[in-house]
Amino acid sequence: MNIMERLKKAWWILPAVILGIIPLIFKEKSAYVSGILIFAGIYIILAVGLDLLMGYAGQISVGHASFFAIGAYSSAILTVKYGISPLLAMFFGMFLSGLIAWIIGRPVLALKEYYLAMATLAFNEIVITLIIEIEWLTGGASGLKNIPSFSLFGFTMKNNLHYYYFVWFVVFLVVAMTIAIVKSPMGRTLIAIHSDEVAARTFGINSTKYKTGIFVLVNVFASVAGSLYAHYMGFIAPDDFGVSTSVNMLVMLFLGGFGTIYGPAIGALFLKILPELTYFFQDYELLINGVILIIVLVFMPKGMYGIFVAMKRKIGFSRE
Amino acid sequence: MGEYSHLFQFFFSGITTGSIYALIAVSLVIVYRVSQLICFSQGEFFVFGALFMATLISKGVSLPLAFVISLFGSMAMGGFLQWLLIRRIQGSSIGNLIVMTIAIFLALRGLALIIWGRESYVVRPFTESQPITFMGASLQLQVFWIAGITVFVLLLIWFFFEKTMLGLAMRACAENPLGASLMGISVNRAAFFAWAWGAAIGAIAGMTICPLLFTQYTSGVMPMVKGFIAMSIGGLSSIMGSVIAGLMLGLVESYTIGLISSKFSDAIVFTLLILVLLIRPSGLFNSQR
Lengths: 320, 289
Known about the structure:
The structure holds two protein chains of two kinds.
Chain A lengths: L2 H7 L3 H13 L4 H27 L8 H18 L3 H23 L4 H21 L1 H4 L12 E2 L2 E2 L3 H24 L1 H11 L1 H6 L4 H27 L9 H14 L5 H16 L7 H15 L3 H13 L5
Antiparallel strand pairs in A: 1-2
Helix pairs in contact in A: 2-3, 2-8, 3-8, 3-11, 3-12, 3-13, 4-5, 4-6, 4-11, 5-11, 8-9, 12-13, 13-15
Chain B lengths: L1 H34 L6 H17 L4 H24 L7 H23 L15 E3 L2 E3 L2 H22 L1 H11 L1 H6 L4 H23 L11 H14 L4 H22 L4 H15 L10
Antiparallel strand pairs in B: 1-2
Helix pairs in contact in B: 1-5, 1-6, 1-8, 1-9, 1-10, 2-3, 2-4, 2-8, 2-9, 3-8, 5-6, 5-8, 6-8, 9-10, 10-11
């Protein structure tokens, strides 16, 4: 193994370093910049998880925001109403999300394509309705206020910088885990299920077990993102977790590049930074998002990651 | 009598919303049958039809003329979108096509926001008169317009698909695209007409309910979702099934709001959907599994 190959293997250090020094570059504006990047980070966790579920396991979800909501509300309710420590509340949210995902995963994932899309969308609506209606616990439509800051082993996160480094640490963890899964035999099993479930079953793969397993894992990721979101915002309302949020995640997925893990991360980053660049267009944001997505679908179906790969190949860094 | 008049009231409001759900479901089914695609942007035609008609009326155009102009405008828009966008990515994965309709949904919604802003619009009822009382329930005359127009549209669809050459050609494309194209039927053109029809029916739903519902740029989502539900319960490709399912959905919703709780009605409806999907994934009214 020569030095070039070793460098290639360690390429991830470069984005890590860049992200690490971004707050230092933007000195006086760093609170603002890191604020945007915290949101982007939270959405990367969601989008990468969704890609594992849709891009690899081939299970459509139009309700990914539901477990984002369950995580956020677990953290918020436990810390605000019962004074439990944020870390413990986050673990409880992960456990609860995993449990619910495990219970509904088996029957729901037996559905295919449009039916699965409908069922996940319906589940998202049910979660939102329940949050709005169980007012004594969740604060109803007006939401929950005064969620305490996240604290870790006695260290309380007071400002954007603390959250920035913590959220992006979690992002790296989640992406690394996802990549490890994709490259493991389990990743190949998922791809097999995706391309032909009947064939996969014929080869003795227990597809139900794998699909449910990945569904649980992905929703635990979403729950973590929800906890981070709740503590960073300090305020959550049901509107943050509706079907439109789920649709936004789909847009990130396809904008970045379906089934590539890094692609959706780029898509999430782009879609969270874009409104900041076009803030003087405000009302035009929806239209711009729609048009960008249309252009991507028509002219570059592999998404932004696809362009990146094509460029890399042209410059000659490809493996062949 | 007092008890029963409530039940009648719920029945009529159920039929009203149910007709709207049925129309949206039918517009989805038509697109689905010809191009095996569920169009997530269908609710936007509902909004465009209603808001365009409201604007025309406020500019002094008479109601029937505004209705017709808005109808053909939406029809042209549906066909144009199919020609401009869907045709281009025909043949790519089903996921891409779904996301394309989501993109169209975002773009149209954004366009509606720019044109009409965040205000809500309402138009005058098609015939202006006092609500009439029937069996103790008070009824807006618009309810009869909605039911009548729904029946008329359904008859028209039946006639189109059963009796006209173009309708038969579109059905052939739905059954077997390759076979149809070998017989000299342009599958693309069939899809074009399906989108135009779908958009027109979606717009009709929006325009007929507009006197009873404050419509704004975000109003398209709920009818679309309910239309999907009706379509799924009806078995995706059955027009009759989705009409029955749409009416049932309206009734279930109206009675749960009236008798159980207005709060949980959506949760109950969605739970019903998941149950139906789990028990009979191919829909309640689909004979072939």
